[in-house]
Amino acid sequence: MVRLPDLMGYLDEYLAIAEIPDYPNAFNGLQVEGKEQIHRVMTAVDVSIASVEEAAAWGADLLIVHHGLFWGGLQPIVGRFQRRLQPLLCEGISLYSVHLPLDVHPEVGNNVQLARKLGLSPSERFGDYQGTPIGVLCETEMAIQELVSLLEASLQTRVRAICFGSTVARRVGVVTGGAGQTRTITEAHRLGIDTLITGEGAHHTYLDAEELGVNLLYAGHYATETLGVRALGEHLQRMFGLEHRFFDHPTGL
């Protein structure tokens, strides 16, 4: 057991949430305050009706997510929003959300965790967001098709491979989630990254890859971001002896 204020203080410091810039609606940190004593922690990629109902059914005291409550901005507490909040408030479940600070974390971060799962060792950082590099760069020597197969097997996902670069990956950039953006692809090309692994991207990024001569591996927004929250929950289990469960609710996107 650990007290909620103590655990929140630890998480805020461990994840450096005050130091990492993020989107305004990410609202990193404690989003809903529940009971004071924490025994059970559930982690999930998204806060949703499904995840909060599962947390309540399991008897979780704390739900930690990557995508929190307030992405939709200011809104009345009705409908779906009310259905997400009600189980938290009725059962005294605290909600903690951590977005980009979890992506960039050097130990439990999504990008580092994915790189390691692929057997890659991060050597540099790249992928600028407001002055902070979000992604990791890894040196390797692996055939693109081998990397695609490894990525699919590691995440149990289907990879959309848009390959206009080298048939052998030597400089691989990893930025999980929705980093398939022109600015990220352009930066990758400028740094000599031949292969960019991320979750998803827009239609026009096909042309970015084609014209810049890079490989884009889209492995799914959800699939690429399951690793960080799971690793964070396991870290808390080791550090504080808390029970932990990861709630898997794949979107296929």
Description of the structure:
- The structure is a single chain.
- The protein is of the alpha/beta class.
- It has 2 domains: about 1-100, NIF3 (NGG1p interacting factor 3)-like (Udp-n-acetylmuramoylalanyl-d-glutamate--2,6- Diaminopimelate Ligase, Chain: A, domain 1, 3-Layer(aba) Sandwich), CATH 3.40.1390.30; about 105-225, Udp-n-acetylmuramoylalanyl-d-glutamate--2,6- Diaminopimelate Ligase, Chain: A, domain 1 (3-Layer(aba) Sandwich).
- About 40% of the residues lie in helices and about 25% in strands.
- The protein has a 6-stranded mixed β-sheet, with helices on both faces.
- The mean pLDDT is about 95.
Q: What labels describe this entry?
A:
single chain; 253 residues; alpha/beta; Udp-n-acetylmuramoylalanyl-d-glutamate--2,6- Diaminopimelate Ligase, Chain: A, domain 1; 2 domains; six-stranded mixed sheet; five-stranded mixed sheet
What distance lies between the first and last C-alpha atoms, to the nearest angstrom? 36 Å
Overall mean confidence score, pLDDT: 97
Percent of residues in beta strands: 25-35%
Structural class: alpha/beta
Global shape? elongated
**Helix content percent band:** 25-40%
The H-level CATH homologous superfamily of the largest domain, spelled out, is NIF3 (NGG1p interacting factor 3)-like
For the record, what CATH class of the largest domain applies? Answer: Alpha Beta
Order of helices and strands: EHEEEHEHEHHEEHEEHEHEHHE
Number of helical segments with 4 or more residues: 10
Largest sheet: 6 strands, mixed
- Spatial ordering of strands, largest sheet: 7-8-10-11-12-9
CATH topology of the largest domain: Udp-n-acetylmuramoylalanyl-d-glutamate--2,6- Diaminopimelate Ligase, Chain: A, domain 1
